[in-house]
User: Which sequence fits this backbone?
C-alpha cells in the first residue's frame, strides 16, 4: 500500500520531525510483516506450552475479533460503494465493456491457474503411495450445484441477510450475509436511482456521504491489521503446527507448488502483458496477500482489497466498487482452480481411477465456469464436490482431505485475494482508466 503516514501540518517544527520514527517503520506493509514474524514467535511459544494455555486462547480471541470487525462493515460498504459507483459509472466511458472485460480476465487467469494445478498433480502424483487411512473417507455435508449460482443471486430479503439459531440451552441466533445478494440488490437500487433522475439526487448524495464515513471507520480497522496478523498466524501455528500434515504432506506440497506457480508465473505473465511492473504490483498488494493468508477469508479481506486497489494500485473507485465485491465471491484461483484440480487428481489416484483427456478438460471447464456455481455457498470443499461429481469420482474422497483443510486454505485464500486485485488493476490499465500517480510515487521513493 502507498504510504500511510499523515501529511505533516504547517505547525510541525523541525525538532518534532527529527523525533519521528523512520518512514520504513511507519509503513503499513512493514508493520504487517512485523506482525507476521511476531505471530510466528508467539505461535511456536504457545505450542510449546500446555495444551489449553492462556496464550493460545488469547491469540484465538484476538484473531477472531479482528476478522469479525472486518466482516462487520462488508454489507454497508458493498451497498454504499455499489450504489455510488453505479451513479458515477455514467462518468466512465464503456462501463459495459469494463464488466465484460472483468469476467474475461477472471476466466483467463482461472484457465492458466487450473493448468498449473493439473501439471503439478501429474508430476508429483500426490495420491499414489500415500499412507492415508481409507477410513477417513466420508461424504461431505454440503455439495456444489450447477443451479447454486442462480439460487444464490436471488435475494432472500431486502438486506441479503439470513439468520440461524442453535437448538441448545443458549438458543443463540447468528446473522450471516450473502455478498452476491447484496451486490444484486445494490446494483438494482443504483440503476433505479439513476433512472429516477433529479428526485433521487438527495438519496445519492446521502449514499456518497455514508460511503465516506464507512471508509473512514474501515481505515481505523485496517490499521489494526498488524495486531490481527500476529494473532491469526500465531493461533494457526499453535493450533495446527506440522502435526496435521501426517500422511498428506505430499498433497500439501503439491497444492503449495501449484499456488506458487500461479503467483510466480501466471500472474507475472499477466502483469507483463498489461504493462504493469511485477515487483511494484506485489509490493503494493502485499497487505492484501498477507491478510488473505492469515484470515483465510476473501470476504474478510475484501474491504482491504478495495482500498489497496484504489489507493495503491490506482484503480478508479467507480470500477473497484463493482469489480472487487464481484471478485470476492467468484474470483477464486486458489480455491476454484488449483485446489480442485490437484484434489480431484489426488482422489482419482487414491481410488485407482484412470483419468483421460476428457476428464482433464472437464476439470478445466468446472474450474473456469463452475466457481460461479458455488459463489452463494462459497468454500473450496463445496467447489471440490462439484468437480468430483462432474468427473464421476467418489464424493467420499473429500473426507480424506479435511484434516489439512486449514493449512492449505491459508495459501489458497492468499492467491484468491491477490488475483482479485490483479484483475482490477489489469482491466483498468488496458481500459486506460488506471491512475498512474501511485505507481510514479512508488518509483520516486
Assistant:
Amino acid at each position: 500500500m502507498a504510504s500511510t503516514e499523515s501529511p505533516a501540518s504547517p505547525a510541525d517544527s523541525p525538532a518534532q520531525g527529527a523525533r519521528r520514527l523512520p518512514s520504513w517503520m511507519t509503513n503499513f506493509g512493514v508493520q504487517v510483516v512485523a506482525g507476521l514474524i511476531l505471530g510466528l514467535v508467539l505461535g511456536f511459544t504457545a505450542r510449546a506450552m500446555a495444551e489449553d494455555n492462556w496464550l493460545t486462547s488469547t491469540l484465538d480471541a484476538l484473531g477472531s475479533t479482528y476478522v469479525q470487525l472486518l466482516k462487520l462493515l462488508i454489507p454497508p460498504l458493498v451497498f454504499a460503494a455499489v450504489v455510488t459507483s453505479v451513479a458515477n459509472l455514467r462518468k466512465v466511458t464503456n462501463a459495459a465493456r469494463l464488466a465484460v472485460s472483468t469476467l474475461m480476465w477472471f476466466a483467463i487467469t482461472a484457465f492458466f491457474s487450473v493448468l498449473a494445478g493439473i501439471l503439478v498433480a501429474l508430476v508429483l502424483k500426490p495420491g499414489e503411495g500415500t499412507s492415508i487411512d481409507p477410513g477417513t473417507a466420508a461424504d461431505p455435508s454440503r455439495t456444489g450445484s450447477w443451479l447454486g449460482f442462480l439460487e444464490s443471486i436471488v435475494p432472500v430479503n431486502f438486506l441479503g441477510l439470513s439468520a440461524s439459531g442453535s437448538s441448545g440451552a443458549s438458543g443463540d441466533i447468528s446473522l450471516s450475509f450473502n455478498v452476491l445478494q447484496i451486490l444484486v440488490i445494490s446494483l438494482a437500487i443504483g440503476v433505479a436511482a439513476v433512472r429516477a433522475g433529479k428526485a433521487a439526487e438527495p438519496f445519492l448524495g446521502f449514499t456518497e456521504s455514508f460511503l465516506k464515513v464507512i471508509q473512514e471507520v474501515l481505515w481505523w480497522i485496517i490499521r489494526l491489521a498488524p495486531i490481527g496478523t500476529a494473532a491469526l498466524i500465531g493461533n494457526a501455528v499453535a493450533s495446527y503446527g506440522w502435526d496435521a500434515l501426517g500422511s498428506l504432506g505430499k498433497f500439501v506440497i503439491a497444492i503449495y507448488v501449484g499456488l506458487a506457480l500461479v503467483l510466480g508465473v501466471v500472474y507475472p505473465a499477466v502483469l507483463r502483458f498489461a504493462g504493469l511492473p511485477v515487483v511494484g504490483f506485489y509490493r503494493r498488494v502485499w497487505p492484501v496477500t498477507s491478510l488473505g493468508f492469515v484470515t483465510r477469508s476473501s470476504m474478510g479481506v475484501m474491504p482491504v482489497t478495495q482500498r489497496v486497489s484504489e489507493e495503491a494500485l490506482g484503480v478508479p473507485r467507480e470500477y473497484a466498487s463493482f469489480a472487487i465485491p464481484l471478485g470476492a465471491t467468484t474470483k477464486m484461483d486458489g480455491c476454484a482452480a488449483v485446489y480442485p484440480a490437484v484434489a480431484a487428481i489426488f482422489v482419482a489416484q487414491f481410488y485407482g481411477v484412470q483419468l483421460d483427456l476428457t476428464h482433464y478438460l472437464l476439470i478445466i471447464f468446472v474450474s473456469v465456469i463452475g466457481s460461479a456455481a458455488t459463489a452463494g455457498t462459497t468454500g473450496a470443499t463445496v467447489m471440490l464436490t462439484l468437480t468430483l461429481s462432474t468427473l464421476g469420482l467418489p464424493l467420499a474422497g473429500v473426507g480424506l482431505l479435511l484434516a489439512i483443510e486449514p493449512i492449505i486454505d491459508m495459501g489458497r485464500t492468499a492467491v484468491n485475494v491477490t488475483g482479485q486485485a490483479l484483475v482490477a488493476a489489469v482491466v483498468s490499465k488496458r481500459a486506460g482508466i488506471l491512475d498512474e500517480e501511485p505507481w510514479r510515487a512508488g518509483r520516486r521513493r
About this structure: Residues 95-124 form the longest helix (30 residues). The radius of gyration is 22 Å. Residues 93 and 433 are 9 Å apart (CA to CA).
